[in-house]
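1st attempt posting a full record on here, be nice pls
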Amino acid sequence: MYCQFFGFNEKPFTITPNPNFLYLSGIHREAFAHLLYGIDSHAGFIALTGEVGTGKTTVLRTLLSQLNTEKYRSALIFNPCVSAEQLLANICREFGCESSGPHGFGNLDDLNRYLLEQNAAGRTVVLVIDEAQNLTPDVMEQVRLISNLETEQDKLIQIILAGQPELNDVLNRHDLRQLSQRITVRCRLTPMKLNDTQDYISHRLKVSGSRIPGLFTRGAVKKIYRFSRGIPRLINVVCDQALVLAWTRESLTVTSSIATQVIAEAQAGSSEGRRILGRILYWLFAGK
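the predicted structure (as tokens):
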């Protein structure tokens, strides 16, 4: 659509977690460092929380991509709305140690055997459960039981629970206090600051192939920042709409006035405003 007009190789502000556009702000790098520290120190349990759209999935996928397969074995569970038995079966399936017994009986034994084999080979096993705020208490208890798989000297599996701030409410339940007490590393993703927002936009434009200096003016960035509150997903949605409007005006610059109009339409009660706002809300809550 507007890619040819601006000279982009691809759209710079899609909301899918494209690794080509990876940008880790200072906040994201700090969270990444906490996660890596927890894994390498064999903390056992690690918790990562953050509001919708702050980049949890991006940090997790970056982390997993950085783990050397010679030293680590990892699995990502991103559909935790299952029973305790189904979760255990999914974990075994992801690690390739699915039970051959009827109805998945023996899954825990098979997983324990697999973890012991990896430990003997000097590998660290990492399990990431995304959207963990959706885990029911009985499933959380199953996760705790998995964490009990250990040797006399070490935890056999490192478990990262990632989710929205509601995850803290789940972990604070009295009946889950044993699990909560085992979480030794906690990190929280917060929205980006203004300077990070500027760098984030510039980075995505550069990766897309843009050669237009100052495509987004400083004033436009400030307005986008105030509207998005530094949440990457909202930044992407507003920037994409701003580029569409600039293209229709045949403007090679996204000015403060263009940003103002896009934001105003998103907040207005007009049919167009409702359409844009509906898209923002859909993109915001449909993803991880």
